[in-house]
Give the backbone structure.
Amino acid sequence: MKKLGALIMLTIMMLGCNNNDKTSKISSDFCDCFEPVTEDMDPKSKRILVKAFNDESPQEVIETELGKIEDEGTRETITNEIREVATFADNSKLQKCINDIKKNYKIKDIERKQAREIAVEMEDVDDCEVAAAIWKSAAQGPDPNANDSGTREENEKENEQ
């Protein structure tokens, strides 16, 4: 999972966009990059991943949530799906998709605030909750002045100021 977060952080650092429509489109395109690994995923796996990536200790959350699953077959299926997401950063299709987006939008640099805006936009894309949680987790940073509310309403209010 660290590789996936690192890949997304690299993309965040290379991304540059100021236009909300552009942010929306980029968000949707990034969601499409993750579709191959998330589209047929068990809803329980998605729920665990979203919960994990919204926590400061994703690995602990995953272990705890997997421990709650009594059925061994279900637990094995979900474990395999989570592993697939964790290794997805090594997937050349994901890397090509991200590189194509960077090329298409002439992406350069992005501030963490903009990265969080993209994550919020991703939350609004159908079936993109896992990718949005991963993106949001990667966009978190040691910016003590940032208001990282994670909600669209609070981010819009912050942008109005």
Observations:
- Residues 9 and 48 are 22 Å apart (CA to CA).
- The first helix runs from residue 2 to 14.
- Residues 2-160 form one domain.
